[in-house]
Write a structure and sequence with these properties.
By secondary structure, the protein is of the alpha/beta class. It has a single domain, classed as 3-Layer(aba) Sandwich (Rossmann fold), CATH 3.40.50.850. About 35% of the residues lie in helices and about 20% in strands. The strands form two sheets. The protein has a six-stranded parallel beta sheet with strand order 5-4-3-6-7-8, sandwiched between helices. Strands 1-2 form a two-stranded antiparallel ribbon. Helix 2 packs parallel to helix 9 and helix 7 runs parallel beside helix 8.
C-alpha cells in the first residue's frame, strides 16, 4: 500500500479540512478504473504491483455502496476502432503499443477484470477508450450516471496519476462532486501517487481513506454536504 503524504493548501479557510461531510448512497457512484489483468498480473507488460493490494478496499467500498443503494461501475480500458484512432497514444513507444493494444481488446486476457474483484450482476460494466472515462467519446459513463440521478462519484483503481486522476478532473469539470480514495488507488511510486492526490484535493475534489469513507456512508443521509468552516 502507498505511504500517504500529501502537500495540501489552505482551501477557502479550511486548513486540511474535507469539502464533503456526508454521502447520499443513492446519488453516489463508485467508479473503479482499469482494475484489469493487463495492469494487475505479474506477467503483464503494464503491471502495477500495488494495484493488487487495493483490491480488498475496492471490494469493501463496493459492498457498502450497494448496501446504501448506490451504483458500482467497473470501467475497463478497451481497444476498439475509437482507441485505434488515438494516434497520439500509439505514437508513444510504438514498439510496445501493438502488444498492449491486443491485450486490451475484448476477450483478451489482459482486458478482463482481476478475478479477486467482487463484481456483482447488478453492477455496471463500462468500456472507455481514453485515460479519462468522462472525456467526450471515451465512454457512456456520464450519460448512464446522469440517467440514474448520480451527482457524486468516488474514484478508485489504477493508475492514480493517469486514468484515475484524468477521470476525477473531468468529472469535477462536468459538475460531479468528486472524491478520490487514498488507499484504493495505486500507481508505480509513492511520489506519483501523493502528487496526484494532492492535486485532486487542492483543485478538483476531496480525498478520503477507505475507513473515513465507510464511516461517512454509514452515517450519511440526504445529499452530500459541505463541511463546516474552521
Amino acid at each position: 500500500m502507498h505511504k500517504i503524504n500529501m502537500p495540501v493548501q489552505n482551501r477557502e479557510g479550511r486548513e486540511n479540512a474535507h469539502i464533503y461531510d456526508r454521502l447520499s448512497g443513492r446519488s453516489t457512484a463508485l467508479i473503479v478504473i482499469d482494475m484489469q489483468n493487463v495492469f494487475m498480473l505479474p506477467t503483464m507488460p503494464l503491471e502495477v504491483p500495488l494495484a493488487r493490494a487495493i483490491i480488498p478496499n475496492v471490494n469493501r467500498l463496493a459492498g457498502a455502496l450497494r448496501e446504501a443503494g448506490g451504483t458500482v461501475a467497473w470501467v475497463q480500458m478497451t481497444a476498439d476502432d475509437r482507441f485505434d484512432a488515438w494516434s497520439s497514444w500509439h505514437e508513444r513507444a510504438p514498439e510496445t503499443r501493438a502488444e498492449i493494444t491486443e491485450l486490451l481488446r475484448r476477450g483478451a486476457e489482459g482486458h478482463a477484470l482481476h478475478a479477486d474483484l467482487d463484481v456483482r450482476p447488478g453492477d455496471l460494466k463500462v468500456e472507455k477508450t481514453r485515460y479519462s472515462a468522462f472525456i467526450q467519446d471515451s465512454s457512456d459513463l456520464d450519460r448512464i450516471l446522469r440517467g440514474r440521478g448520480v451527482d457524486t462519484i468516488i474514484v478508485t483503481g489504477t493508475l492514480t496519476n493517469v486514468c484515475c486522476e484524468s477521470t476525477a478532473r473531468d468529472a469535477m469539470m462536468l459538475n460531479y462532486k468528486t472524491i478520490v480514495v487514498s488507499d484504493a488507488n495505486a500507481t508505480l511510486s509513492d511520489e506519483a501517487h501523493n502528487a496526484a492526490l494532492a492535486n485532486v484535493l487542492n483543485y478538483f475534489g476531496d480525498v478520503f481513506s477507505t475507513a473515513e469513507l465507510l464511516a461517512r456512508m454509514a452515517a450519511g443521509s440526504g445529499v452530500v454536504k459541505r463541511a463546516a468552516a474552521g
